[in-house]
Design brief:
This protein is mostly helical and 91 residues long. It has one domain. The chain is 45% helix and 0% strand. The longest helix has 13 residues, at 27-39.
């Protein structure tokens, strides 16, 4: 996020950073890390995996229903939002 100021200026979107050593401020990130660790334990050398392997895990995570999304998968919501002139509410 070295260019966060330029992103803010270009998009008008505020970018906030969590305090260091405060994982509770990064709930979604910490949860995703935990899910990734199920496939790639800590200290795994990712260079031994093919792009296809990584894409498979990406697809699994994006197609996994989430309680916080009303038991909908992130990919399904994203796909529904793209073509819509009246986007669905994420809530």
């Amino acid at each position: 996020m070295a260019r966060h100021l330029k992103i803010t200026q270009a998009t008008g979107t505020r970018i906030c950073f969590c305090d260091s050593a405060s994982p509770w401020q990064r709930g979604s990130n910490e949860n995703t890390n935990g899910l990734l660790r199920q496939c790639f334990p800590k200290s795994t050398d990712l260079s031994i995996h093919t792009a296809r392997d990584l894409a498979r895990v990406e697809n699994e995570l994006n197609r996994r229903p989430s309680i916080t999304l009303g038991d909908r998968a992130p990919a399904d919501l994203f796909e529904a939002l793209l073509p819509s002139e009246n986007p669905l509410s994420l809530r």
